[in-house]
Structure formats: C-alpha cells, structure tokens
Specification:
Helix content: 25-40%
Number of helices: 10
Distance between the termini: 13 Å
Keywords: Amino-acid biosynthesis, Hydrolase, Methionine biosynthesis
Organism: Paenibacillus algicola
CATH superfamily: HAD superfamily/HAD-like
InterPro entries: HAD-like_hydrolase_phosphatase, HAD-like_sf, HAD-SF_hydro_IB_MtnX, HAD_hydro_PyrdxlP_Pase-like, HAD_sf
Strand content: 15-25%
Shape: globular
EC number: 3.1.3.87
Pathway: Amino-acid biosynthesis; L-methionine biosynthesis via salvage pathway; L-methionine from S-methyl-5-thio-alpha-D-ribose 1-phosphate: step 4/6
Radius of gyration: 17 Å
Order of helices and strands: EHHHHHEHEEHEHEHEH
Number of domains: 1
CATH topology: Rossmann fold
Strand order of the largest sheet: 4-3-2-1-5-6-7
Length: 224
C-alpha cells in the first residue's frame, strides 16, 4: 500500500519550476550558429540528451558566461505556487529533490531564494576554463539506464528504493521520460503529458504547483 511508503518528490527545473525551458530560451535568444539542427536532433531523439546539450553549449565561447547567465536570470519566471508547494512538502515531511537537465550556473542562482539545500539539487555543470563552454556530467547514467541522459533522473530515483519510497516525478519534457516510467505518480505538462499518454503511464496534468498541492491532498499524500 502507498502509505506504507515514504513519499519523495523529484522535480524537473526547466519548463517545470520555471515557466519556460531556459536552455531553449538561451538558444533562441543568442542564436549560436548551428544550434537549430542539434536541437531538432535532440528533440527527435536522433541523438542523446547528453550529446545534444553538450554540443549546443559548445557553440558558445566561454567569455559569454556572464552574458548568458544574466539573460537566464532576467527572463526566467518561477511557476505559480512553487514556494507554497515547498512549504506544503516541508509541513508534511516529504523530501524534495530538484532533478534538472539544466546547468548549474543558472539553475542554482534561480533557486537560491527558495533555500533548497545544495545536496538536494541535481543538475549538470559547466566548465569555462577552455575557449568554448564545456558541459560536465556529475550525475551520469548508471546501472539500468543506458540512455545517455546527461543528468540521469533514473539513477537519482534509484537511490530511493521502490519498496520503501512512493516516488513522485514532476516534469514536462524529454528529460523526464525515463524517470516517468519508474515513478509511482507523475505530474506532467507539455511533451511529458503526451509521452505518458503514448506509454500508458499514469499521470496527472498540471498548470501550477497549486494544482499539485490540491491533488496530493486528495490522494492523502501527507507523509508519515
């Protein structure tokens, strides 16, 4: 039974905590030459997420770090209800982890106002020591996942065994597909909703974090 297990939440960042996908917005704003082809191949799953993200950021010289960071911080909008959702989870002792395919130099500053412990934020990193931006992958696929996710949500989720934890995934895009397959409950938006329908994965569509709070209350996901 569900309530014999501890609920735990794994939440995507780009397009989930934020209204827009920050990587997509960065590419569309700065228009590095050749990004369209790489993005299309990534979205259509012709290349892995790891390869796609790495190749897109490698189109930028490292000297543009602050320019890209400033743009990301200025344009990002936090989805309605996020602060209230974090408080709801804290009130009911439900652990919360950010599992992001985004990059640390903009993910962590955007999350700073919410005081999420750094060890609960999983994302990719960027190295600016070379001429071009190099994305590094501190949380790669291990064990059962061989999809070259870059930041592997399956690997993070597998640290919380399914016989002990009721695993809740919140997401919107291709970076969430593999995690959705092993989650007990999926809150979905956008591309992830369509993919869950195709895969026959149980999911609850949402627009704001208030929607998720209300659904969790109805499911009595209040922790133990």
């Amino acid at each position: 039974m569900m309530m014999n297990k501890q609920p735990v939440v794994f939440c995507d960042f780009d397009g989930t905590i934020t209204d827009n996908d920050n990587i997509v917005e960065i590419m569309k704003h700065f228009l590095p030459e050749g990004y369209e082809e790489v993005m299309r191949a990534t979205v259509e799953r012709q290349i892995s997420i790891k390869e796609g993200v790495g190749r897109m950021f490698a189109l930028f010289p490292s000297s543009r770090r602050e320019e890209i960071k400033s743009f990301a911080l200025e344009q990002a909008v936090i989805r309605e209800g996020f602060q209230e959702y974090l408080q709801h989870l804290q009130d009911h002792r439900i652990p919360f982890y950010v599992t992001s395919g985004g990059i640390d130099f903009f993910v962590k500053p955007l999350l700073e106002p919410f005081h999420i412990p750094e060890e609960q934020i999983y994302c990719n990193s960027a190295d600016f020591s070379q001429s071009q931006i190099t994305i590094t992958w501190p949380h790669p696929c291990e064990g059962s996942c061989t999809n070259q996710c870059g930041m592997c949500k399956v690997t993070v989720m597998n640290q919380f065994p399914s016989d002990q934890y009721y695993r809740i995934l919140i997401g919107d895009s291709i970076t969430d597909f593999e995690g959705a397959k092993i989650a007990d409950l999926v809150y979905s938006r956008s591309t992830l909703t369509k993919r869950c329908e195709e895969l026959g994965v149980q999911h609850v569509p949402f627009q704001t974090f208030h929607d998720i709070i209300e659904d969790m209350k109805q499911k009595t996901l209040q922790g133990v």
